[in-house]
Write a structure and sequence with these properties.
Structural class of chain B: alpha+beta
Strand content of chain B: 25-35%
Helix content of chain B: 25-40%
Largest interface: A-B, 41 and 50 residues
Radius of gyration of chain B: 24 Å
CATH topology of the largest domain in chain B: Rossmann fold
Helix content of chain A: 55-70%
Order of helices and strands of chain A: HHHHHHHEEHHH
Strand order of the largest sheet of chain A: 1-2
Oligomer: heterodimer
Strand order of the largest sheet of chain B: 7-8-9-4-10-11
CATH class of the largest domain in chain B: Alpha Beta
Distance between the termini of chain A: 33 Å
Number of domains of chain B: 2
CATH superfamily of the largest domain in chain B: P-loop containing nucleotide triphosphate hydrolases
Strand content of chain A: under 5%
Chain lengths: 288, 338
């Protein structure tokens, strides 16, 4: 028995920190995981596939066919990133975010690490916050991956030059890169509500696959409902309602209305789901 | 049974709670946990003295792990009070748990991280743990459980015994006042079991209170100073291990060919003949069993037997083993109590 062990004061004599170590550890566990990298690589493959397919096809894409902006890629490689983001928003991004968000608490419970984190003691609220922060970090990484891979593929395969915006104005290459980043940020914000939903579902089960599937299914259901004109009254409340509403960011001057509406809606989802997740998790008997 | 143990406060750390129960590290009062209509824990009053190695015995499904979950704040109690390290639980969780190391219902680790990675992760979850000493403490803990050679290996490749060791290392990442070990020798080979026993002894010698649950009597008998016995959600006995053992009935064994006479004499002396006599040796020697010797001198029994002409080839007073006591407390049945 070392002197240190016998001479302990309660708590080991270290004043409790803010718990940044746990956040750091969460991020390192998340991004050292093979699964995370597999999903990011799959996302990166989307813009590359689009770029290569457009490059290889002989006839030019007719305007109005295929995903938004697809016809513009051959003229300007900078549109690859935007096109890829448009393609990923309905399914690929929610899919990967659903996996990460659904895994937050249920995954730890399934591995049996939840009880050890709690008796460490991580603190239930702190753990919930750190887990959500991890999911948010993944949302950022996911959209950034698509945007970066798209920009790279566009620059390599197509000519790059000043971009003509939807409003008819032309902006420089540097500013268009900035616009791409803005769109990526918009989509990241769009995914925050879904992440909060995933976190909430994750507190209800010890089976991570169930929570992941439920989160992904909800994202699909929300988009389907958003397409039913009969349910128009519901549309503004659906978390996916503004997902593709980033066209405003491609006008000159930029219109921030849709960005603001989207951010407000997502904040509402974060607040409600976060509160419910806290209510559930803080009273949960951890029996896994 | 709640009297203060002599072991209390020998480590001079009685400052933990100046108000009361400074000699009890774990204290529960009428603790109940119900799942639906079934009571998993049914009103138990635990008292674990500071400095003891407390064996928490009971058959599978008797409520041991549920009790441990409540002690550590993983599950909430349906009713009753819990005090750990002198603080009311679960209100005091955040300040109590850094002083408690625990292994609960088997190890739980990230299979895609190494042993070192797992311990680093769990240590980072404790806001009281210093990050500057983290890597050294992780290394020391791995050394203590004999895992230093497998420290860099992914836990996916660990055997059950190695995971169990890693779980113990996690419990010892920091100096602890109390260790709660739920079935610590599960899945360990005989050497591992011995090492765990030695580890527990050395920790106890250093002043750490160890609360160890087990369904293995031999294990508890080897390392514990105190025992609590659970049966179907109730704490049926609790106290120093010697007390529990001596509470059992001592048994007289007379080896003789003169079975009938011996039985008659024993009965006349007020002893209660036990199970049917059994042949034990050559030349017709038979063992006669009787209980009820308590308070009577064994030599008086022998001289009474000899006076009546019983040929005594062997005479012994056997103390009840802990196992007999355990079975008498928890019942013989093999079925798990639902």
């Amino acid at each position: 028995m070392s002197a240190e062990t016998t001479g302990l004061s309660r708590g080991g004599g270290v004043r409790p920190g803010m718990g940044w170590a746990l956040l750091g550890s969460e991020l390192s566990v998340l991004f050292r995981r093979l699964r995370t990298w597999a999903m990011l690589i799959a996302l990166a493959a989307v813009p590359i596939l689009i770029a290569v397919a457009v490059k290889l096809s002989s006839q030019p894409t007719a305007p109005g066919r295929g995903p938004l902006f697809l016809d513009r890629i051959t003229q300007n490689g900078l549109f690859v990133a935007v096109t890829a983001l448009v393609v990923c928003v309905p399914l690929f991004l929610p899919l990967t975010v659903g996996v990460v968000a659904g895994d937050t608490i249920a995954g730890e419970a399934n591995l049996g690490t939840l009880r050890y984190l709690l008796i460490a003691p991580a603190g239930r609220i702190r753990l919930l916050l750190v887990k959500y922060a991890g999911a948010v970090a993944f949302c950022c990484a996911a959209t950034a991956t698509v945007a970066a891979a798209g920009a790279l593929a566009g620059v390599v395969l197509f000519p790059v030059g000043p971009v003509t915006l939807l409003s008819g104005d032309t902006i420089s290459v540097g500013e268009s890169a900035l616009r791409s980043l803005l769109i990526a940020a918009y989509i990241t914000v769009s995914l925050l509500g879904l992440s909060a939903i995933g976190l909430l579902i994750s507190t209800f089960t010890d089976v991570p696959v169930g929570a992941m599937a439920a989160t992904i299914v909800l994202s699909v259901v929300s988009q389907v409902l958003d397409n039913l004109p009969q349910l128009e009254w519901l549309h503004p409340w659906l978390f996916s309602h503004h997902w593709l509403g980033f066209a405003d960011l491609l006008r000159q001057p930029i219109s921030w209305t849709s960005f603001g509406e989207n951010a407000l809606l997502q904040t509402g989802y974060i607040a409600v789901c976060g509160a419910l997740a806290y209510a559930k998790f803080s009273n949960k008997d951890v029996l896994s | 049974m709640n009297e203060p143990s002599e072991a209390a406060n020998v480590d001079g750390r009685g400052h933990a709670n100046p108000v009361r129960s400074s000699n009890l590290v774990i204290e529960t009062h009428a603790l109940v946990k119900r799942f639906g209509r079934r009571s998993a824990v049914d009103g138990i009053d635990l008292a674990v003295p500071r400095g003891s190695v407390f064996g928490f015995l009971g058959p599978n499904g008797s409520g041991k792990t549920t009790t441990i979950r409540m002690l550590l704040g993983l599950a909430s109690a349906t009713s009753g009070d819990i005090r750990v390290l002198g603080k009311e639980m679960p209100q005091g969780l955040a300040s109590v748990l850094p002083g408690v190391g625990a292994l609960v219902e088997g190890p739980g680790f990230y299979p895609f991280l190494s042993g070192t990675g797992n311990l680093t992760r769990l240590d980072a979850a404790d806001p009281h743990a210093s990050s500057s000493t983290r890597s050294r403490r992780v290394k020391d803990a791995l050394d203590r459980v004999g895992l230093s050679h497998a420290a860099g290996k992914k836990v996916r490749a660990y055997s059950l015994g190695m995971k169990q060791r890693l779980g113990l290392a996690n419990a010892m990442l920091r100096p602890r006042e109390l260790l709660v070990l739920d079935e610590p020798t599960n899945g360990l080979d005989p050497q591992g079991t011995r090492e765990v026993r030695n580890l527990v002894r050395s920790l106890a010698a250093g002043g750490t209170t160890v609360f160890v649950s087990s369904h293995l009597l031999a294990e508890v008998e080897h390392m514990c100073t105190h025992v609590g016995v659970m049966s179907a959600g109730r704490l049926v006995a609790q106290g120093r291990i010697e007390e529990l053992r001596s509470a059992g009935q001592a048994r007289v064994v007379v080896q003789t060919p003169d079975v009938d006479v011996a039985s008659r004499v024993l009965a006349r002396l007020g002893l209660v003949p036990g199970e049917a006599p059994g042949v034990v040796g050559s030349r017709g020697t038979t063992a006669v069993y009787a209980t009820g010797i308590n308070g009577r001198e064994p030599e008086a029994v022998v001289s009474a037997l000899v006076a009546d002409g019983v040929r005594i080839r062997g005479f012994a007073v056997e103390n009840a083993s802990l196992e007999e006591r355990f079975v008498s407390l928890t019942g013989e049945g093999f079925d798990v109590v639902g």
